[in-house]
Specification:
heterodimer, A: 86 residues, mainly alpha, 5 helices, rod-shaped, B: 206 residues, 68% helix, elongated, binds zinc ion
């Protein structure tokens, strides 16, 4: 019989739909009976979505200013080099 | 075919970039950095991603001279970022040795008893949506910190898997791991994020 720990071990495969129909069935049965594992799966799913939301962030002004500053410097170097007739 | 105003203005922008115009670079940076950052973040932790994007822009100052416009400027910039990230990943690969024999994080494994039932079950349900949760700046900072602390291959596995629309094969190729090892990396990274969010919800601390 599939126990809580077994389910925790294959939780990501379950979430990603990587389990075969045969493997899926005992997980689904366990989840109908076990509130704790339902919570676990729900929270693991939420963590995954959280990570996705987090990774699509926008740059802050500070970063853009730093990039501008570095580009100005690089441009200056390049102009000097060009003028020296490289 | 619609030749848009945008294409015209892109051409104009490229000409100015080639002429080393400061203002044009300023314009390009604010237009294209968000996309470049999104690409880098698929591969790397947030702070390394920012570093890579900065470095790429410096490279662009010289490289733009050879830009022939066969692809759009945005595509070209994204390609530069992706290549640099991949090199960085390859260089750092040796750093991590994940124990592929153990599927559960030790921290989580401790929470089951010998009968393989929950001893310390997950207490809270994350009710809010991901977007609502992310509006909490403290949680966002905490996530940043934990993502940076993940072993490089675990973090890359997680980010790449999402970025490549769950195409495991692509991710396995980039990371040079087997499909089953990728599953372990993914799962362990997710458990760590889960544990982090749980602690944060419970104690308000990171
Ligand atoms: Zn259970």
């Amino acid at each position: 019989m599939l126990m809580c720990r077994d389910l925790a071990e294959i939780a990501s495969d379950y979430i990603d739909g990587e389990l075969s129909a045969r493997q899926n069935l005992p997980v689904k049965m366990h989840l109908t009976m076990c509130q704790d594992c339902r919570t676990f799966i729900g929270n693991l799913r939420a963590s995954t979505r959280l990570m996705q939301a987090h990774s699509s962030g926008h740059p802050d002004e500070e970063l853009l200013r730093r990039i501008d500053a570095r580009i100005s410097e690089a441009l200056k170097t390049r102009r000097t080099r060009d003028n020296d007739g490289e | 075919m619609v030749m848009s105003v945008r294409e015209d203005s892109e051409e104009r922008l490229i000409t100015l970039l080639k002429a080393q115009d400061d203002q044009a670079f300023h314009e390009a940076v604010s237009t294209y950095t968000p996309g470049m950052l999104a690409v880098a973040r698929f591969y790397l932790d947030p702070s390394t991603a920012e570093e890579v994007v900065q470095d790429c822009w410096v490279t662009v100052v010289d490289a733009i001279q050879k830009f022939e416009g066969r692809s759009g400027l945005k595509t070209w910039l994204h390609r530069i970022v992706a290549n640099r990230c991949k090199n960085k990943l390859r260089a750092g690969k040796r750093e991590v040795a994940t124990d592929f024999s153990e599927v559960l994080e030790p921290e989580l494994a401790k929470r089951f008893n010998s009968a393989r039932r929950w001893d310390v079950p997950p207490k809270l349900r994350f009710h809010e949506s991901a977007d609502t949760l992310m509006e909490n700046g403290a949680l966002s900072d905490c996530l940043d910190k934990h993502l940076s602390a993940l072993p490089e291959t675990q973090r890359s596995a997680l980010m790449l898997y999402e970025a490549h629309q769950h195409q495991s094969e692509d991710v396995c190729n980039i990371l040079d791991v087997s499909a089953s090892n990728l599953r372990v990396l993914l799962h362990r990274a997710r458990q760590k994020i889960f544990l982090m969010v749980e602690t944060f919800q419970e104690t308000g601390e990171c």
